[in-house]
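To whoever is on call:

I kicked off a structure prediction for a single chain this morning and the downstream step that reads the tokens threw a length-mismatch warning. I double-checked the sequence; it's 257 residues and nothing unusual in it as far as I can see. Pasting both halves so you can look.
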Amino acid sequence: MEFILVKKDHAPHIALIQLNRPKELNALNLQLMGELRDALKEIDEDDDIRAIIITGNERAFAAGADIKQMAGKTTIDMWKVDQFSTWDQINKTRKPIIAAVSGFALGGGCELAMTCDMIVASETAQFGQPEIKIGVMPGAGGTQRLTKALGKAKAMELVLTGKFIDADTALSYGLINKIVPVELYLEEATKLASEIASMSPIATQMAKEAVKRSFEVPLEEGLHFERKNFYMLFSSEDQKEGMNAFVEKRKPDFKGS
């Protein structure tokens, strides 16, 4: 891996992926996104890992797509590259993903953070979709995920003006989970990941799947999907362990089976 760093033993059952193009503020070029896709696919198949953190550095989570790589492209060039197929794979990751964001999360960086399941931000974090300022628009889910997170009016304002919002505004809008000092943002993301990793990995993955489905289908269909996953968990050893531990007033020992 040239543009990401992967640490599978960041904490018990937690993998850390760090975007690593610091001179370019972690701009998301095709190679970086391909490496991220491959790393997530490998981690998703590792039974020892139960939660994932994606981060950048204190200055930038990711300041956007690599504009130099796209500036001279034609419509057909972009169609052939099919760069968004990488994003589709990221979205298919079953294990919970937390974005640990400090500094800029703009354009593709904001879209990547929103593709994650939760966002822990430092006080310096800034979010935005400034694509409109260079004559295009979000293409990796920005118009869709931002609207679902913020509602139509706020999403329209950010997408059509390209303005940035700070961490406090992002929290008030419901875009992120929490804000902490810069020196603590990765530690706080790790605490959240560790809490999730202490649960049954089968249950967390099925619950994540159900929450995501709620954005894609009508309520009745979503309820049916939720109920199906709920019933399926009664075939797991973790369900037996969890309920027996509750009855016996002890801490459960989930094995992921």
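Update from on-call: the warning came from a stale cache, not from the record. Cleared it. Sanity check on the structure: The first strand starts at residue 4 and ends at 11.
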